[in-house]
Design brief:
The longest helix is centred in the N-terminal third of the chain and has 34 residues. The two termini are about 35 Å apart. The chain contains 16 helices and 13 strands. The protein is about 50% helix and about 15% strand. Helix 16 links the parallel strand 12 and strand 13. It has about 450 residues and is α/β, with parallel strands linked by helices. Helix 2 packs antiparallel against helix 4, helix 2 packs antiparallel against helix 9 and helix 6 packs antiparallel against helix 9.
Length: about 450
């Protein structure tokens, strides 16, 4: 099917997925609350509040797992960047619910036993089976949350941060053990017992399937290996891969993988790179700039090297196209997913490519050839980052408006460095492009 003939989505996939996900959360909050009151109150308000906030904390922790499980249905519709943002926000809710659980429970039992708060806490830890597990789980969650703070995260390598983040899974197991040992919902058996086991199994199964089973199954099936390494410029290189049954791989233009090149000095590194050409069922291609140790060493990869690819990930695809025309705005090496989208997106397309100089425009000859073949327009905007033309900044509202007079009637896909992406999104808001027609994804690794 030609891009121009591809039917557009009648329902926005992101809205549908968000509504479904929020509805599932609301249903589980309601079920947790109903089962809590059905189990009976203790007669001490502080203890009851502590119990309820503990149950909410367990529920939030389960959804934390689902958000980072990289489940294909959610990821393709919402996007890893948004799921990661939700994960961070729910982490704040998790922390406060567990703090409330700890404070209200200890104070409640101290009041009931007529003890000091510290004495009561020591007694609970030393005498009640399962409390020590909860304390360790809470400490691990605080540790993981602490290293995820932006000012700390920036000072850590990804591998160190990722290793510490794995302790979150230990916290999940310890928290579940605490709930089994002391939770009234488990002690009462019946529906509540079945419900909570299903909740925890669903959370853990999501991670196992999304992070382990699917990547292993797909790599065993496709068996990717490098067939060519092609320098595109002094700073960029393309890596071509082939494998078995690539026509059956559920990948779309605009998506990315976490690539592991299985050499003795690289197998443990996972780097996110978008496809720089639409998948054709025979090969996959990534194009990267030598911006860091991982990217710069791509040139040294040998033909025949085996590749372990996790993915495909991302919602930056034509699935979300609503209009019959599109504008693609790229900055620097952010051109790669847009180069792939240029092959697949429907209707008339305008590509705006922002670079420091035309020599920095990666893949420009093939982009121009592809644009001629499908009747698209390409505008290369060259100049320093602070460069302004006769109508202000090159990606400012006036400049974009004059380049694309019907911009409000187009889907706009934006990919580039964070500063350029943010500036472009501000320009689109000033122009009045409807929010649902603007698509941007910030690629990042998650636990």
């Amino acid at each position: 099917m030609r891009p121009a003939d591809r039917p557009l989505a009648s329902v926005r996939p992101r809205i549908l997925a968000t509504v479904v996900f929020l509805a599932v959360i609301a249903a589980n909050v309601a079920a947790t609350t109903v089962l809590f009151f059905a189990a009976g109150l203790s007669g001490n308000t502080l203890i009851d509040i502590g119990r309820l906030t503990g149950l909410y904390g367990g529920l939030v922790l389960t959804f934390q797992l689902i958000l980072v499980a990289r489940l294909p249905w959610l990821d393709r519709r919402i996007g890893m960047d948004r799921l990661t943002t939700w994960h961070r926000w729910t982490a704040i809710g998790l922390l406060w619910s567990l703090v409330a659980h700890f404070v209200f429970t200890v104070f409640g039992y101290a009041e009931l036993d007529d003890k000091g708060v510290v004495d009561e806490f020591v007694s609970m830890v030393t005498q009640l089976e399962g409390v020590l597990r909860a304390v360790v789980a809470f400490a691990l969650i605080v540790l993981v949350g602490g290293v995820s703070a932006r000012f700390v995260r920036r000072r850590m390598s990804y591998e160190t941060w990722h290793f510490i983040h794995l302790y979150a899974y230990a916290a999940v197991v310890l928290g579940f053990g605490h709930q089994v040992m002391l939770g009234k919902s488990f002690a009462s058996g019946g529906i509540a017992w079945v419900y909570w086991y299903l909740v925890w199994v669903a959370g853990l199964a999501s991670v196992i399937v999304g992070r382990l089973v699917l990547p292993l199954a797909r790599n065993l099936r496709h068996r990717l290996r490098i067939v060519a390494v092609v320098p595109e410029s002094a700073e960029t290189v393309s890596v071509y891969m082939t494998g078995r049954h690539l026509d059956r791989m559920p990948v779309k233009a605009g998506q990315f993988f976490l690539w592991r090149f299985l050499t003795k000095d690289r197998w443990w590194q996972a780097n996110p790179y978008s496809l720089s050409a639409a998948p054709d069922g025979r090969t996959l291609r990534l194009t990267a700039k030598a911006a860091g140790d991982g990217s710069s060493s791509l040139r040294s990869l040998k033909v025949g090297t085996w590749v372990f690819a996790e993915g495909p990930y991302g919602a930056f695809t034509a699935m979300h196209q609503r209009k019959t025309r599109a504008l693609l705005v790229a900055g620097g090496v952010g051109i790669t997913p847009l180069r792939a989208l240029l092959e697949e997106i429907a209707g008339h397309v305008i590509l705006v490519y922002r670079v420091r100089s035309e020599q920095d425009a990666v893949l420009l000859p093939e982009i121009k050839g592809l644009a001629r073949a499908r009747g698209a327009a390409v505008h290369v905007l060259a100049g320093p980052s602070d460069w302004s033309g006769p109508f202000g900044p090159l990606l400012g509202p006036d400049s974009l408006w004059r380049l694309v007079p019907d911009i409000r009637e187009r889907d706009v896909f934006v990919c580039g460095p964070p500063g350029m992406t943010s500036a472009t999104l501000r320009s689109l808001r000033e122009i009045g492009v409807p929010r649902q027609q603007v698509h941007a994804e910030r690629f990042s690794l998650t636990i």
